Amino acid sequence: MTTRTWFTLTAAYALLAAGPALAEQAHAGHDHAMAGMAGMAGMGSMAGMDMTPAARAAPKKAAARHAAARTIQVQVTGEFAPAEIHVKRGEKVNLVFTRTTDRTCATSVHFRELGVDRELPLGKPVTVALTPAKAGKFRFSCGMDMIAGTLVVD
Ligand SMILES: [Cu+2]
Questions:
Q1: In CATH, which of 2.60.40.420, 3.40.190.150, 3.40.630.30, 2.40.50.90 is domain 70-153?
Q2: By the 8 A CB rule, do 109 and 142 touch?
Q3: How confident is the model over 130-141, as a mean pLDDT?
Q4: Which of 9, 66, 67, 92 is the most exposed place for a label (fewest CB within 10 A)?
């Protein structure tokens, strides 16, 4: 084991020892992933795993809120509700995401095809202003692409 690997493992153990809150903040994430990590820690072999916060992509800045546009509220818990959002092509919409729990790994929302990446602070409405230029189905998801919904553009 190299010195560098040892430091990486030490950091990983420190993250686990710091408890669920910090681990969740680092988007180590879904319950099943956490269970797997705990098991592996017990085995003392975690080489190759990268759980550092730096592993996450930095969010991009998003467009400002549309002045006159339809507003669609999306609640973020262990899911996005509604998980399917219908808009018209060329329609200006404000999607307002509000995360209402810490018991979720959806602490950010990503529309990969539309280049939208936004953090979702607890209890703070976050507006994603969109004017979809083409029809189709566009997936939006948490940072790990597991909790997801669909923007349907007709
Ligand atoms: Cu996730």
A1: 2.60.40.420
A2: yes
A3: 96
A4: 67
